[in-house]
Amino acid sequence: MLGDGALAQLKREGRIVVVGASLAGLRAAETMRAKGFAGSLTMIGDEPCEPYDRPPLSKGVLLGRARADRTALPRLRSVDATWRLGVPATGLDMAARRVRLADGDEVPYDRLLIATGVRARPWPREEEAELDGVFVLRTRDDGSALARRLDEGPKRVLVIGGGFAGSEVASACRERGLPVTVAERGAAPLVGALGGVVAAVAADLQREHGVDLRCGVMVTALEGDASGRVRAAHLSDGSTVETDVVVVSLGALRNTEWLHGSGLGAGPRGIACDAGCRAFDIRGIVTDDIYAAGDVARCPHPLFGYQFLSLEHWGNAVAQGRIAAHNMLSESIDRLPHMDVPAFWSSQFGVNIKSVGVPSMATEILISQGSLESRRFVGVYGYQGRVIGAVSFDHGRWLPFYEELIEKTAPFPPQFTTVDRHADGQRPLDADFPDPSVPSHGPTVTLSGYSPADRRMTFTPAH
Amino acid sequence: MTQTLLHQILDYANRADPYPIYEELRKTPVHHEADGPYVISTYYEIRSLLHDPRISSDARNLASGNADPLAEPASEQSALPPGFLRLDPPEHDRMRRMTNRHFGPPHSPRRVDQMRPELHDIVGGLIDGIGDPSRIDLVEEFSYPFPVTVICRLLGVPREDEARFHTWADTLAASLDPDPDADAAERDKGAAEARMQLGMYLAGLIEERRKNPGDDMLSQLATTKSQDGQMTTMELLSTAALLLIAGHETTVNLITNGMLTLLRNPDVLQRLKTEPRLAVPIVEELLRFEPPVQLLPQRTTLADIEVRGVTIPKGSTLWLILASGNRDPQRFENPDHFDPDRPDIQHLGLGSGIHSCFGAPLARLEAQFALSELARRLDNPRLLDDPPPYRQNAVLRGPRHLRIACDGVRP
């Protein structure tokens, strides 16, 4: 409990430790200083470089238009921190309020912010993952290594997983004129995030741009040559793809292993926290000195039935980092809830895709503006008679309107007419989401139930 | 007899300072007078409606709307179809896409940036040409000729023809003003005539560019075929007319309002002299504080819409008072204070949504160049009239003349 003066003392001479030196951690640190935190601030990051921006890694960097080492995040203000970069955190002692580092150091804190994010899910068979030419794409090093390999002009690139990241990689390769195969376990690319109706458009788009798109298949094995370079991939339909570059794009794993045994409510689905970003312990009791933000956090959202929501979105990292920082340095009555409507964007095959809300929760979709056929449209998602999400293809300027509908829990299907209403938009369609228990490319929005201590989820690799 | 708020907005007597009327308006965020338009004056409501697909900008919907004596009548019954400003999707999107192909990203990401040296030279030349420094009319000598020259170069309109289309552009801009006292029939006739003349002039130019294409936008619009097809001559004419007028009648006011505001805020002017980079936030704050487009009077509801508890019926005309939203204290702290150091200046000055200002990147750059160079080169500038005389237009609001004096013009 913060008694009278305790908060002032914390602000004056407290010790705040931020584990995770990327977007959420940096914006949180800036907010702390902006709010007048004058104590010591330690930023711990497992990567050796200062905070950088990830979206360009699957876009401009792969096209050779931007360099991976030139994507440092702009600093909005000085954070005057002690940086411990290239040293991962390995443990947390909640009772002693200390973070253990890989080099054996221990860093004491009064307030801890965990923003360790996610990492790329690796190819499950280790010896195959280590073949030369097999990549994942998450970090700056991943981006520059893949870009270098694409510069060499590979004969064919195989992308495993047709989610947003995989589709962006395929798009960049096609733009560079490289032959690409995409292998997607679901019925179409983006199906987990946007459902079958919209995914069918994404599939057409890929094929039209020359992608060899294989859906409903799994990659069962990667095969290397005598020198340890990947040369082929074997698919579950019995076919073989000859390839010299494989990009494994199977979603992300939350970086919570270091918290195992600490007593914090952390597991494969992330760190459970309340709407104010305070982390729960394993018993479901909220802590008052440990906060979580960004991709690693999962927190209950009032618009989505108070289920815990995990978001791997850029905007969420910024907003949640700021909220966590604010709340760390506020009396309980002044704390703010993190209630932003989820939103993300993607750019692929010449199309700007944006989404708000949680489409994957929906059962129905209505194309309210434009048409699927023209590939320029807004789709509104409905769940139990209310608007729950929206997606746009080259129609992003309309999305703020739909965001308001989601916030107001407006009825679905919407009863009004709009400009540019087509035959598609006369009645709702089945949104056609795959069974969420079947893992595919990993949607970037995940609802994960009500239990703050859920540590049971396991992932069964494709085979 | 007291005037209604609507009449007060339009009353020329209030042109120099409409902001107290807007403050009064904001007490009723959805203001409606019998048979009149629904007037929206608060920031968040305007912003929502700018993104609302139940609102049409199509001139044809407006014409078939209610019998509103204040709304602009169907003045577009001329030879030209409406430009994309007055179209809804999908036609709007197609036309704007085809036009943007030669102006901005993704196809022409560097076009505006490449105009920097040219902008710099034009600004320099105009300031060099200033006559008697003790009596400068900034509008005549600078703010008007600058954007006109720029839009002419961009489109490929010969500079020597400027005087001719100056008259047409002025007449058309004046027709956008929903002035209740003007003779509507006379005004519409004048506008139709001007539009026709401008159309014929542009048609001749386009024909010539088709034969001898240059690297100007008119040539590119006339000769490009894309996935969206090729613009018909009529589409090309109305697009060119739109760009020409929009390029004429808005930037001039941004620059003039800018200099006026700087002269009223000498501390900011002084800072700009030594910090040219301050021009960027200054122009953004200007777009909030004195936006060249004060209100959007041409939108129609396609459905019943509820705004702040008021149901606006289908088929109503909306006026969105951007300049009022920009001064809404619910959104901006101390809104009547000109402060380029505001941490976030997300103004409505360039609109928002699909009709947000097409020429915004160019207008911003022009105003930044103009104000930083004026600040740097005019020695001890001061206002001779405050307030200056304004144009009649309540929508495209700005001084008709801005008389200033200075001790000299620095090289």
From TrEMBL, chain B:
Q: Which InterPro entries match?
A: Cyt_P450, Cyt_P450_B, Cyt_P450_sf
Q: Name one Pfam family in it.
A: p450
What GO MF terms are annotated?
heme binding; iron ion binding; monooxygenase activity; oxidoreductase activity, acting on paired donors, with incorporation or reduction of molecular oxygen
Q: Does the keyword Iron apply?
A: yes
UniProt keywords, alphabetically: Heme, Iron, Metal-binding, Monooxygenase, Oxidoreductase
**Highest taxon of the source?**
Bacteria
What Gene3D superfamilies has UniProt attached to this entry?
Cytochrome P450
User: Where are the annotated segments for Disordered?
Assistant: 60-83
What family does the Swiss-Prot or TrEMBL record give for this protein? Belongs to the cytochrome P450 family.
Please report the name of this protein according to its UniProt entry.
Cytochrome P450
Natural source organism: Streptomyces viridochromogenes
Q: What is the lineage of its organism?
A: Bacteria, Bacillati, Actinomycetota, Actinomycetes, Kitasatosporales
